[in-house]
Write a structure and sequence with these properties.
- The protein is an alpha+beta fold and about 190 residues long.
- Helix content is about 25%, strand content about 35%.
- It has one domain: Cyclic Phosphodiesterase, Chain: A, CATH 3.90.1140.10.
- Strands 2-6-5-4-7 form a five-stranded antiparallel sheet, with helices on one face. It has a four-stranded antiparallel sheet with strand order 3-1-8-9, with helices on one face.
- It is globular and about 50 Å long.
Length: about 190
């Protein structure tokens, strides 16, 4: 059976709450943006897409071998921006200030390990971010200026685990199921 899957890090509830408050503030401008529920926001390390469910154990085993080399660490969530640029924004995100080298290394090692079993590596370098909105129509220049000038501090959180997650797309939004939890050294 094929599932839609990805590898991610979960957020602390305090960070989710601050992101939810930011989304509510930005929603008041009534731009055409789809807003994921705060409880569905996560730090994606590797999007797998359509995946043979029989490969989940192999995927998890490869991540376990990587995770055993890393201690838990803390990340700080801050900054607000868009991809790919302000002229044609498609995604609104909050970022990570000074992401630890271990976060980047883990993501790059996961990408390399999973490329060995058929999951292609991205062309671009891993850029840690949290997607808080997907743009559905051109944004007003006033809203873009607001985004450019808006500071955001979501606080920090400890990264203790990496998850293999199944994504079921439903009319009311994606439903995520954690298939495997892989701990870092504590």
């Amino acid at each position: 059976m094929t599932i839609r899957a990805f590898i991610a890090i979960d957020l602390a509830d305090s960070v989710r709450q601050k992101i939810g408050e930011l989304q509510e503030e930005l929603k008041r401008d009534r731009e055409k943006i789809s807003w994921p529920k705060p409880e569905n926001i996560h730090l994606t390390l590797k999007f797998l897409g359509d995946t043979d469910e029989a490969k989940v154990d192999d995927i998890a085993d490869r991540i376990i071998r990587i995770a055993k080399d890393y201690q838990s660490f803390t990340v700080s969530v801050s900054g607000l921006g868009v991809f790919p640029n302000y002229r044609r924004p498609r995604v609104l995100w909050v970022g990570m200030s000074n992401p630890p080298a271990s976060l980047i290394e883990i993501a790059e090692r996961i990408a390399a390990a999973l490329a060995e079993i058929g999951f292609p590596k991205e062309d671009r370098r891993f850029s840690p971010h949290l997607t808080i909105g997907r743009v559905k129509a051109a944004l007003s220049s006033r809203f873009i200026e607001k985004l450019k000038s808006r500071a955001f501090d979501g606080g920090g959180f400890a990264v203790n685990d990496i998850f293999v997650i199944k994504s079921d797309l439903r009319p009311a939004g994606a439903v995520y199921t954690k298939l495997r939890e892989i701990g870092l050294i504590r």
